[in-house]
Structures are given as structure tokens and as C-alpha cells.
């Protein structure tokens, strides 16, 4: 099992990051199921992703997946196997995002009116589901360290929930259900969430939170910075090795990072300047069933982080230590966060499967477009190789613990 202490006891620090994206969480769900199956081929049927990653980070729907992979069941093993994530999405998201039963025209009018009077969805089913699923499990109980962002609208600043912080400070040790509700509370879609923590000594802390995607839709850099932060806070014995340990982490030499996107609209297809130049407030909030301002914030945040992390690894010639898998060719309802029709959900499953067969691509630091990398095979082959590296790292740690 990966330790929640991020002081690496092997050769590499291992990171898994999952973007936000509503129902599009099905896409990384498909990739994670494939990766876990490869780990099981190597290490047995009981292998779970939480056994291999020092940090798993996720925003919004990625935060929900992160929690599903790391929250303990009654046997102190992950609540969900990766192969069960998509079944959860297929069953539950139509209830979380109920589709208007009227005609397309009247359904669009109803959705438009909803954005003027309150969130598009009341969130009651999601809240009930997460409270039932996670109960009173708290942040400090996850099976490996997690990092999940939200945004406090009262303080106007991000709030980063992490297992380590939950262990060190009771006021940060929130219920996992509250964290998942908060990180997925996308403006205009779901209501903001308020809750309070206490430390048993009469001290309390109140949170007024919305979706973490407004701060970090792609939480990869948060996960990396969390590792560095924890390392600099370690005891003097580790600090004596600061130059030998921290610098290789900073340049990517001692990190294995897997970052999974939830898909993005095909370039130049969904919106364009000619149309946007005529938009007022309403159009930025509601446009043909989508919310452009939210889509743009999410994609911009994800891409900036990818550029930064890619630069870190590519500039130090450790680019193979960072694997980002993203599909930027989604069209129509595929790119929505909430069109939870059976047809669209099944389409997302197929998109995830096709993504496995696509060649490995990497963001071009000049254009921002994903470019196929010759000689590195398909995403399935890259994930298979990643599984081998994770398995080798875990075995090394087990030997070092003896």
C-alpha cells in the first residue's frame, strides 16, 4: 500500500491527477480501469491504484473519482475498484443531472430560465448519494494521500484539502462527503456548499465552497507542489539530504506523473470570436445548452497546468516521466458536463476506449495543440509501461521496508 507519508522510500515519487469535467469523468474512468487491470496482471487480482500512488489528486468529478479510489471500505481496502467507476457514472449521473423531458425547444427555454433563478440542478440527489456512500469517513482516513481543491467564495481563495493536512489539523479534517460535494459544486450547475469542522477543543472552522475547477481544473501541479511542501516540512534527518532529494524532484528525475484529462471540445469548433463578440451576460452563462464561461475557465486552467508541467519535464529531458492523456476532439454533447443521456454516456465510454488506441501525444509548448509523438506507441502501450514502472517501484519499497 502506498503510504500517506510522501517521503519516498523507493526511487520515485508517484502521482496520479484527474481533471474536472462532470459526466466526462467516464473518460479517465476507462483509462484507470485499464491501468489497474495491468497492475493486476503483474501483482495479482487484489492490486488497487491506491497501493501504487503517493498522491492522487482530483478536481470536481476528478475529486469524486479520487475519493472512490482511496476511501476505505470495512476491510480497509479501496471502496471502489477502478473497473467499477464507469458503472457508477452510468447508473448515477442521469439521477444527478436529470434531463428535461420536454422537447428540445422547451427544454432549452427551461434550462435558460433555471440559470436565471438558481442552479440548474438542486444537488439533492448528489448530496444524498455521497453522504450514503461515504458516511462519516474523513480526510485523514484515505488509503493514500489525496489532494482535492475547492474554492471558498467567502474568503475568495482556494482551499486545498489533503490527507496530510487532515492528519495534522483537525479543523482541516473534513468529511469526504463534504469535500466531494464542494469540489463538484460548479457555478450555475450545482449549489455552493457550506459546512463546519471542529477540533474537539471548542474551535471551529466554516467553509463556503464551490467547484475547485475555478482554481485548478487540472490539479497536477497541486499534487507536485504538495510533495515538495511535505518534503520541506520533514525532520532534520531528511533535510540533511535536501540537495540530493529535492532538486531531482524539482526537475522531474524522481517523479512518475500520470495526468488524465476528461476531454475538451475540438479546437475552433464549439465557440468562435465572431459569435462571442455579440454575447452579453446571458450568452456567456447559457449558450445552446452549454455554459461558455465555465467551459473556458476549465479548459484554460487545465491547459496552463499542462504547459507548466510539460515544461518542467521536457526542459530537464525527463519528458517520459510525465504522461498526460487528453482528447481535445470532442464535439456536440460529448463536450458537455451534464448531458447525462444514455446515448451520450455510452458515447463517452467509447471515446475512452478509442483514446487507449490513439498514439501518445504531448502538448506543443508553442501552439498548445497536442502532437503525436512518434516511436512511443499508443496510450494503451504507455499505460502498460507505466504499470510496469509502478509495480517495480512498489516492489522496491516493500524490499526496503524489510
From TrEMBL:
It holds the Pfam family Patatin. The active site is at residues 60, 211. It is an enzyme of class 3 (hydrolase). It comes from the Eukaryota. A motif (GXSXG) lies at residues 58-62. PROSITE patterns: PNPLA. Its EC number is 3.1.1.-. A motif (DGA/G) lies at residues 211-213. GO terms for molecular function: monoacylglycerol lipase activity; phospholipase activity. The keyword tRNA-binding does not apply. The keyword Lipid metabolism applies. Keywords: Hydrolase, Lipid degradation, Lipid metabolism, Plant defense. Belongs to the patatin family. Lipolytic acyl hydrolase (LAH). This is Patatin.
Amino acid at each position: 500500500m502506498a503510504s500517506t507519508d510522501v517521503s519516498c522510500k523507493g526511487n520515485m515519487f508517484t502521482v496520479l491527477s484527474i481533471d474536472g469535467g462532470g459526466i466526462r469523468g467516464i473518460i479517465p474512468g476507462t483509462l484507470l480501469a485499464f491501468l489497474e487491470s495491468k497492475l493486476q496482471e503483474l501483482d495479482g487480482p487484489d492490486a488497487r491504484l491506491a497501493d501504487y500512488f503517493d498522491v492522487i489528486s482530483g478536481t470536481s468529478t476528478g475529486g469524486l473519482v479520487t475519493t472512490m479510489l482511496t476511501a476505505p471500505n470495512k476491510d480497509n481496502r479501496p471502496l471502489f475498484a477502478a473497473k467499477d467507476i464507469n458503472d457508477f457514472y452510468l447508473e448515477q449521473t442521469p439521477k444527478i443531472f436529470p434531463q428535461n423531458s420536454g422537447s428540445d425547444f422547451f427544454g432549452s427555454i427551461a434550462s435558460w430560465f433555471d440559470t436565471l433563478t438558481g442552479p440548474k440542478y438542486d444537488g439533492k440527489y448528489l448530496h444524498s448519494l455521497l453522504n450514503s456512500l461515504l458516511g462519516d469517513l474523513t480526510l485523514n482516513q484515505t488509503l493514500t494521500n489525496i489532494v482535492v481543491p475547492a474554492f471558498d467564495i467567502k474568503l475568495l481563495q482556494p482551499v486545498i484539502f489533503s490527507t496530510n493536512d487532515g492528519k495534522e489539523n483537525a479543523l482541516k479534517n473534513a468529511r469526504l462527503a463534504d469535500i466531494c460535494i464542494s469540489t463538484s459544486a460548479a457555478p450555475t450547475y450545482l449549489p455552493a456548499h457550506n459546512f463546519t469542522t471542529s477540533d474537539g477543543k471548542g474551535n471551529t472552522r466554516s467553509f463556503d465552497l464551490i467547484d475547485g475547477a475555478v482554481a485548478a481544473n487540472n490539479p497536477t501541479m497541486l499534487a507536485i507542489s504538495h510533495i515538495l511542501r511535505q518534503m520541506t516540512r520533514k525532520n532534520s534527518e531528511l533535510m540533511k539530504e535536501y540537495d540530493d532529494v529535492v532538486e531531482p524532484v524539482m526537475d522531474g528525475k524522481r517523479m512518475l506523473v500520470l495526468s488524465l484529462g476528461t476531454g475538451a471540445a475540438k479546437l475552433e469548433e464549439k465557440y468562435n470570436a465572431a459569435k462571442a463578440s455579440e454575447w452579453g451576460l446571458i450568452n456567456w452563462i447559457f449558450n445552446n445548452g452549454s455554459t461558455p464561461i465555465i467551459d473556458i475557465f476549465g479548459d484554460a486552467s487545465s491547459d496552463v497546468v499542462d504547459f507548466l508541467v510539460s515544461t518542467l519535464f521536457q526542459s530537464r529531458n525527463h519528458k517520459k516521466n510525465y504522461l498526460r492523456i487528453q482528447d481535445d476532439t470532442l464535439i456536440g454533447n460529448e463536450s458537455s458536463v451534464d448531458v447525462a443521456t444514455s446515448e451520450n454516456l455510452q458515447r463517452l465510454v467509447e471515446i475512452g476506449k478509442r483514446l487507449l488506441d490513439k498514439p501518445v501525444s504531448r502538448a506543443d509548448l508553442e501552439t498548445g495543440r497536442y502532437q503525436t509523438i512518434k516511436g512511443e506507441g499508443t496510450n494503451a502501450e504507455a499505460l502498460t509501461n507505466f504499470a510496469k514502472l509502478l509495480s517495480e517501484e512498489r516492489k522496491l519499497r516493500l524490499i526496503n521496508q524489510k
